[in-house]
Design a protein that fits this description.
The structure is a homodimer of 246-residue chains. Chain A has 246 residues and is α+β, with helices and mostly antiparallel strands. Chain A has five helices and ten strands. Chains A and B meet through strand 4 of A and strand 4 of B.
Chain lengths: 246, 246
């Protein structure tokens, strides 16, 4: 039974996140794609995703796979899917994988980017994809503190309640803080992310950059394994899943 | 009577362009800003703009000025304006100018950017700010042809009917065609633009790049001063007013 891998770009602004929700919480990206696949393949499809994204969070290349009995040439399936999918969700790549391929368990790492618009006024053209934060931030300090998070650690301090992941130990392989065109991009590559981990890390780095948490605190916060020591969560709209590595 | 200059960023997706329209054509950016100024300054305000933009067209830095009897500190006026303006229109700069300053007549040149998304699939994240064109384009040829337009010419071939500008002679000071991240950016700097001129030039360059108009045609089309010889107009959403030089 073919195992089909999709790469998906989406603007999460109008969705209640990736995962199918209890009724009444708004439509989700998973729902929209599964319904479209159902219509095309005349078969109930269940997508396996690399990792669900929250309400408002975007993806440049989310990965999901599904098993199907249907036999449709993949180029045709891609065209048909994109013809039916709404403007804010599109399949950018489609490929048949080995039977054992699993979007989540086969992933070696994921890269998320958080974008802070750090200037005096908000941006109409970027408003759905950045977090507008007008106060001055010490980027060099944020970068130094971010480096404390590199490697394998228990990230419980940056985990929101409600996550289902049992293992709080994750490996951050790379974390960069870069300023470009008035925006600060914080890129985090890890083998896995706890619930809200990326956004809690960014929120904490912002408080360091603003001078509200003293420099040198990140290592202590990480060791404390206490969510209350870290900074506030930042809004979903600034977050984008850039890539999943296999 | 103070003469106030505004720099304005807007996402034109939800507007019927800049200029106040006859009733029933949808709200315009000018209307929204004038109403907000009226509310704040308790005075009827008429904005003078560097050049109106069409439906769907964006601006990173549109310029408009107005004369007022009101005396409000400009930093406070900017804050108050942005507090009342919708998310898709914001004032990025405010400054008092000399009495003779006129957003349109004082302008030395304007720079427009047209962005073509040139790859096999459309982009949910860029959908409101690019024109998706999936067919291969010969960028080197487009660049060579674009160079024929440099300098002072009668641009009647690229003028849509309905424009009010009496002088079809404009000076294109710079025109560049650059590929970046799957997008082709066409930047045009000129001392003035006829109605739809930028979009008609881009439409013609696309037909050259696609091979539908042979290379070497641009000079001939320009000389013909006949709109029917040029290519089709391209959608407004790919166009953005980047800068007005004074």
């Amino acid at each position: 039974m073919p195992n089909i891998k999709l790469e998906i770009e989406y603007d999460g602004s109008n969705y209640a996140g990736w995962q199918v929700q209890p009724a009444g919480r708004g439509k989700t990206i998973q729902q929209v794609i599964e319904k479209t696949l159902h219509k095309l393949l005349r078969e109930k499809i269940r997508l396996i995703v690399s990792g669900r994204t929250d309400s408002g969070v975007h993806a440049r290349a989310q990965v999901a796979n599904f098993h199907t009995r249907a036999r449709m040439p993949l180029a045709r399936l891609k065209l048909a899917l994109n013809g039916l999918l709404p403007e804010d969700i599109k399949v950018t790549r489609i490929k048949e994988e080995e039977p054992a391929f699993h979007s989540r368990f086969s992933a070696k790492s994921k890269i998320y980017r958080y974008t802070i618009l750090n200037r005096g006024h908000s941006s109409p053209l970027l408003r759905n994809t950045v977090y507008f934060y007008p106060h001055p931030l010490d980027i060099a300090l944020m970068r130094r503190e971010a480096n404390c998070l590199l490697g394998r650690h228990d990230f419980s301090s940056f985990r929101a309640s409600g996550g289902k992941d049992k293992d709080p130990v994750k490996n951050i392989k790379k974390i960069t803080v870069a300023k470009k065109n008035g925006c600060i991009n914080i890129d985090i590559e890890a083998d896995g992310f706890l619930y809200n981990m990326a956004r809690n890390i960014v929120g904490t780095l912002i408080e360091v950059g603003r001078g509200r948490i003293p420099g040198g605190s990140l290592a202590r916060i990480l060791l404390s394994r206490n969510r209350r020591h870290a900074g506030q969560n930042v809004p979903g709209r600034g977050l984008c899943l850039l890539k999943v590595n296999y």
